[in-house]
Amino acid sequence: MTRVASSCKGGVLSISKALNVASVIDFKKTGAQDHIVVLGLGKTVADLQPQFDEIQKCPGRGLHCYRPAPAGSGFDFLVAFFYPKLGDHVCGSAHCALAVYWSKKLGKNDFVAYAASPRGGY
Q1: pTM of the prediction?
Q2: What's the topology of domain 2-115?
Q3: Which residue of 13, 39, 50, 77 is most buried, as measured by CB atoms within 10 A?
Q4: What is the pLDDT of residue 79?
């Protein structure tokens, strides 16, 4: 993964606007040209109200949005995927991009994540 501060027509500010959030902690591009967005602790990924027209302006398939899970939740991180170009908002293959990122951040190799979508899951 590589750091990309301006690949989404305005970078982090555009991402904040597209997701209606104030706190973006990290923003990276995956090998598949998707974007990983790590959110602060303010708004949960389940509460995001994405502006799909703004997300469609970004290169790649879509956005992977994550935040660290709350203490005691039993999860390492919470995820939400927004792929308006593909018409779906859940992407299991996106978890492949997470192993390297979260391994470095959390110092471990096994994770439990919660997919915050209408279908839900972990």
Answers
A1: 0.70
A2: Diaminopimelate Epimerase; Chain A, domain 1 (3.10.310)
A3: 39
A4: 83
